[in-house]
Specification:
The chain is mostly helical. Helices cover 88% and strands 0% of the residues.
């Protein structure tokens, strides 16, 4: 009888340890996926911000010229990457407020190339960076 009880306890302990290990690893993997989704979005958003600046400068240096056309095309390509990153956020981070913040940041960045002058460009850039920083702050709480 003692041997059966010992065997039962050993098997139960092994199963419990396996279950707890699985749950812990799953939680860590999920958090890692959420973190990667947030990082992919911030990376794409920063690259989009850079491309909007480039588009604005090329537009004011040579409107309609090849540099302007190339910068605009690149900005649209990178904007597509930002949309992909937002979709990844929708899949991995179930937080409507965070999705809204990401899309608001995208809208703010999208307006940069329409700035009338350097001062407005600086102001819009500051707004975009503030939105991006607010997104990161909000996401850091959510992915814990």
């Amino acid at each position: 009888m003692g041997q059966v009880l010992t065997t039962f306890i050993a098997v139960a302990g092994t199963l419990l340890g396996s279950l707890l290990g699985y749950r812990f690893q799953k939680r860590v993997a999920d958090r890692s996926e959420r973190r990667n989704a947030v990082l992919a979005y911030t990376s794409a958003a920063n690259e989009f911000l850079r491309s909007q600046h480039d588009w604005w400068h090329r537009q004011h240096e040579e409107p309609g010229g090849p540099g302007h056309i190339a910068a605009r095309t690149e900005a649209f390509r990178i904007r597509g990457l930002v949309f992909q990153a937002i979709q990844q956020l929708h899949l991995l981070v179930p937080d409507a407020a965070l999705h809204s913040r990401a899309e608001q940041t995208l809208d703010t960045i999208s307006a940069l190339h329409r700035a009338a002058d350097r001062e407005e460009l600086r102001a819009l850039s500051a707004d975009a960076r503030a939105d991006l920083n607010a997104f990161v702050a909000q996401a850091s709480v959510r992915i814990e």
